[in-house]
Amino acid sequence: MNFRLTLVLVVTLAVILGVIFLRPKTTPPAAPQPPIVYTIDEQTLNFIEVRAEGKRESFWKDRDGRWHIGSVTGIVVDPQRWGGIPFLLSGPRSKRVITESASAADLQAYGLNNPPLRVTMGFASGDQFEVQLGAKTPDQGSHYAQNKGFTTVYLIDETWGGVVSRLATEVPIPPTPTATLPPLEGPALPTQRP
Q1: From CA 10, how far away is CA 7, in angstroms rounded?
Q2: What is the Rg, in whole angstroms, of the alpha carbon atoms belonging to the chain?
Q3: Which of 27, 37, 132, 150 is most buried, with most CB under 10 Å away?
Q4: CATH topology of domain 42-169
Q5: Which residues neighbour 105 within 8 Å (Cβ) at sequence distance 6 or greater?
Q6: For the chain, first and last CA: distance in Å?
C-alpha cells in the first residue's frame, strides 16, 4: 500500500473523528414542566382538615409520627388507606394555569366563590395553609383550584380531588378486627339420630 494513500486515509479518519467527538454538545430544550399549585414539606405537616360534600374531618399527627382521626388522641388512621396522603398533599402539579388574576366573576364561574372542597394544612410552626377546589371542568377531568389568599386559578386532576375528598366522606377508620373463638371443649355431640 502506498504511504501517501495511507496518510490521506489517516488524516481523513482523524478529521471525521474530530468532528464527531469535538463538536459542541447541544441538549434538546427541556419539556416545560406543569406548574406547581403549592409545595410544602410533608415532614412538618401535623394537621389536615378536609371539608367536602357538607362533611368535615380532621387528622392530627402525634409526636411519634402517627396520624389520628379527630384529635391527637383519636383513633389511629387505617394505614392501608392513609399510606401516601401526606406526600399527596405536599404539592400537586397543575395541568395548567387558567388565570393569574381571577376576578369575582371568574371565581363564581369556576365554583371558587364557595368551594365544595377545602383542604387546610397545619404545620409544627403553627402556620396554616388552605387549598380550595371548585367546580369540575366541562370534561370532568379536572377541578378548578386556588390557594386561599391568592388570585391564581389552576387546573388540578380530578383524581387528586377525589382522593382528598374521600378523607371526609369515607373516613379512613381501620377495619374492626374479627374475633376468633377457641374451639369448644367437652363431650362430642352425636352426629346422627338414634
Answers
A1: 5
A2: 30
A3: 132
A4: Immunoglobulin-like (2.60.40)
A5: none
A6: 113
The closest alpha carbon to 99, from 161, 155, 31, belongs to 155
Q: Which three cell numbers stand for residue 138?
A: 366541562
For the cut 80, the answer to whether the pLDDT of residue 95 exceeds it is yes
Spatial separation of the C-alpha atoms in residues 61 and 77, rounded to whole Å: 10
Q: Which residue has the cell 412538618?
A: 44
pLDDT tens-digit map of 23-44: 666 777 777 778 889 999 999 9
Residue 168, SS3? helix
The H or E element containing residue 22 is helix 3-22
Whole-number Å distance between alpha carbons of 109 and 99: 12
pTM over 0.90: no
DSSP structural state of residue 36: B
